[in-house]
Amino acid sequence: MSWFHEEESINRAGFSADIWKELQGNHFTYEGFLEEDPPENFEALLAREAIQNSWDSAIERNRQSPRMHLHFNFKNFSGNKKSDFLTALDSKNLQKNIKNTEAQRSSDREALKKIRDDLNSWDENSLKILTIHEKGTNGMHGNWKEFQSRMYLALVSFNRTQKEEGVAGGTYGHGKAALSLVSNARIVIAYSCFKERKEELGITRRLLGVSYWPGYESSEKKFTGWGRFGESNEPFINEEADKYAEAFGIGKRNANDEEDFGTTFIIISPTVEAEELAKAIEYSWWPAIVDKDGFTISITNFDGDEVEINPEGRPALEAFIKGYKIAQGKIEPESLGESLTNIGTPEMRSMGKRRFEAGKLGLTSDKDGWSRPDEGDHKSLIALIRGPRMVVTYWGKNQRPPFVRGTFLANTKPFDPKKPKWNNADFYLSKTEPVDHSTWGDNDNDANTSDKSIGVSLVKEIFKELTTGIQKLRREIEPPKPPERSKGVLPEFDDIMKKIMGGGKKAPGKRKKGVVSVEPRRISINTKQGEPEVAPNSDEKIISKGTVTFGLTQKVEDHEIPIKTKVTIDLGVLRADTNTGSSSTEKNSVPIKIIAPSEWEKVADEPATYEGRVDRESVDNTFEWVSDPYDKDWIVEVGPKATEVNEP
Fold first, then answer.
1. How far is CA 582 from CA 486, 514, 520, 577, 631, in A?
2. Do 55 and 80 fall into the same domain?
3. Same-domain status, 331 and 309
4. Range of 547's domain?
5. pLDDT digit string (tens) for 376-390?
6. C-beta neighbour count of 510 within 10 angstroms
C-alpha cells in the first residue's frame, strides 16, 4: 500500500496536518494606488514562498553566480493520462480513507467536506494539477534516517529548522504550508534529484507525497490528517521514484547530469490561476527578473499557452523599476525630479559605535502625472528590497502632493571584513521579518534576540532616513509656497468684517492685533491655511486646518547651517460682535493638534513648542495642524514664531 495515514497515538505528538491554516489568514497589503488592482492573495503567497525556497537552494548551490529556472505548468488530465495518474497515486485508498469520516473539530467540518468533495470529483471530471519544475538548485539531499533530508524538512518537519546563516529565506517549514494551501485536495508531491553524498551512498532521487488534512475520525479510528505516499512511510528512491514520476507525467531526472538537479512539485487541484500568478510574480520578483542575470520563470496555462511575465511592461511598476536602477547605479538620476541617497545605519554598538551603509534609495517622480493626481488614494511609495531581490513590501508614506516613488536596496556587504559575511544590513533586516517575509518590523517588544534587536534599531533608522529622502525630493519638485491667509469664515460674516475694517482697509484708529507670522532674520516661515470646514458631529461649530513650514532665508551662508531653532505654533482668534459691529482680539487661543516632523522634539505644551534644526537639505520642517471646533463667528489665524537657539 502506497499511502500511510497517521493514526492518533499516545506515542506521537498528535498535532494535525492542517499547517496551511497558519498562512490562510495572511493577506498581503498594498498601499496607495496599488490597492486598486493588487495580485490575488493565494497567487501572491505561492509566488513568494515557492520561488523563495527554490531561489534559496540555487544560492546555496552557487553563491557567486546563482542561476535558476522555474516553470509553472498548469495541466488538465483526462482519459488515459488521468487514469494513469490516479492509479499511480492510489486514489481509491485516499477516497476510502476519508469516506464516512467526521472532523474532530467542528470548525474543520467545512474544510474536510471540501477535501472529500474534491477527491470524489476525480472520477467524473478531468483532473487539474500544477507542476513546479526547478533547475539550477541543489535538490532535496540529506540523510533521511538522521532527519537531515531537505525533503523531510520541507514536507514533513514542523520545527521550522533554521537555514544556513546568510541564506535569504530564513526558515524551513512555511513552503509546505503555502503549497498545501493552494491545493483543494491539500496534497503535495515532490520528486527530487541531487548529487550523491557520502552520508547516503547510492541515493540520488526521492519522491514523496504528503496529505495535509485536518484531524478526522471514523467510527473506529482517529487520524491526525498526516498522510504519506511512499514506501513503508518513507520516500520512494532512485528507480522507484523515477517510475512514479513518469506515471505522474512529469518525466524522470538524470542524476548523472548536474543540470537536472532540482525538485519538481505536484499540486493537485490547484486553487490559483496562471494569469494571476504571473501578475503576482511580477509584483514580488521584478527586481530579480529585470536584472536578467540567471533568475528566470515561465508559466504555461491549462490551454498549453505560455503566459507572459514582463514586469517592465506593467505601468504600475515602472517607477519602482527606475528607482531600483538608480539605487544600483545603473542609471544616473535626472537633475530635477529624481534622486539617489545613501542610507546609513544607526551607531552599531557591537562595532565600536560606528555607522555603516544600510543601503541606497533611488527615487523618481512624474510632475505631469501621478505625482500630482487628480483623484484616487495616493501616497509616496518605496519598494523595500533585500539581497534575494524579492520585494518585501511597498512601504507607503501619507502625504499630500507631490508624491514620489522608488526603491530602497539593502546593503549586502559586510559591515566589518573581519566579521562573517552575513554580518550586514541585509541579514539583520531579515531577522525582523515575519514568516511570509512581508514587512520589516520596528517594534522593540519583538526584539527578543540580539540579532533581532539590531535589526529593529536598523529598521527604525532606515524608515526615518527614507522619510527624509522623500521630503527632500518633494521640496525640489515643489518648493514651499508663500503664505495663504484665511479668506473669512462665512460670506455674511465677511461683509460684516469689511464694514468694521473699512472695506478691507484699516479702520481709523483701529489696528489689527491678531497673532501674525514673525519672520526672524535668518529663519523663514511659510503658512498655509485652508477654508474652514464644518466640524464633525456638530453643525454649529467649524474647524480649520493648515501647515507651517520653517526654512532658511537667502542671507544664511552655507557654513552657518544647520541652525538650531525653537518654534511655537498657536491659533489666535479675532472675534466680531455682530450685534454692535465692533471687533476684538481674543487673548485665548483655539486648541490645535499638531503633527510635527520626526526630527523635531516637543519641549512645551502651551503654546506648542518644538526644537529642531533647520537646514536647506535637512529633514522635512513642515508642521501640519488641525483646530478643535470653534464658533462660526470667529476668524482664526495661525501664529508661528521661530527663535534661534544658541548651542554650547
1. 20, 15, 33, 6, 17
2. yes
3. no
4. 491-644
5. 778 999 999 999 999
6. 12
Query: Can you tell me the distance from the alpha carbon of 361 to that of 308, in angstroms, rounded to the nearest whole number?
Result: 29
What span, in angstroms and rounded, lies between the C-alpha atoms of 647 and 364?
37
Q: Does any domain span residue 579? A: yes
Angle of helix 91-98 relative to helix 109-121, nearest 10 degrees?
Answer: 150
Residue (of 349, 574, 617) closest to 458 by Cα position:
349
Residue 484 located in a structural domain: no
Q: Please write the tens of the pLDDT for every residue from 392-418.
A: 999 998 778 899 999 999 999 888 777
Residue 637: pLDDT above 60?
A: yes
In a domain, residue 366? The reply is yes
The amino acid at residue 329 is G
Q: Could you give the number of structural domains in the chain?
A: 3
Domain shared by 24 and 171, yes or no:
yes
Closest C-alpha to 19, from 52, 49, 56 = 49
Report whether 210 contacts 227 (CB < 8 A). yes
- The answer to whether 264 and 250 are in contact (CB under 8 A) is yes
- Look up cell 532521487; give the residue: 205
**DSSP label at residue 404:** -
Separation of alpha carbons 621 and 640, rounded Å: 13
CA-to-CA distance for 497 and 511, rounded, in angstroms?
A: 14
Say if residue 164 is in the same domain as residue 144. yes
Cell readout for 531 is 477654508
Element (H, E) at 89: helix 79-89
Q: Say which residues have a Cβ less than 8 Å from residue 233's Cβ, sequence separation at least 6.
A: 4
Alpha-helical regions (H) of 414-490: 425-430, 450-477
**What pLDDT, on the 0 to 100 scale, is given for residue 542?**
87
Write out the DSSP string of 278-314. HHHHHHHHHHHHHHTSSEEEEEE-TTSPEEP--GGG-
Are 637 and 486 in contact, with CB atoms under 8 Å apart? yes
Measured at the CA of 545, the angle between CA 542 and CA 550, to 5 degrees, comes to 150
Task: Report phi then psi at 358, rounded to 5.
Answer: -85, -25
Residue finishing a domain among 438, 453, 477? 477
Q: Residue 476 contacts by C-beta under 8 Å, 6 or more apart in sequence?
A: 336, 337, 339
pLDDT at 598: 80
Crossing angle for the helix pair 238-247 and 79-89, to the nearest 10 degrees: 140
Whole-prediction pTM: 0.73
CA torsion sign for 598, 603, 609, 613 is negative
> Do 238 and 218 fall within a single domain?
yes
Domain boundary residue among 287, 313, 339? 313
Cell of 534: 464644518
Residue 196, phi then psi, degrees to nearest 5? -65, 135
Q: What is the C-alpha separation between 298 and 306, in angstroms, rounded?
A: 7
CA pair distance 185, 365, nearest whole angstrom:
47
Q: Is residue 331 part of a domain?
A: yes
Does residue 242 share a domain with residue 328?
no
How many residues are present in the chain? 648
DSSP 572-604: EEEEE-TTT--EEEESSPPPEEEE--TT-EEEE
Cell of 169: 529565506
State whether 327 and 412 are in the same domain: yes
What SS3 state is found at 327?
helix
E strand or H helix that includes residue 93 = helix 91-98
157 and 298 within one domain = yes
Reading phi first (left if > 0) and then psi (alpha if -120 to 50, else beta), residue 111 is in: alpha
DSSP state, 246? H
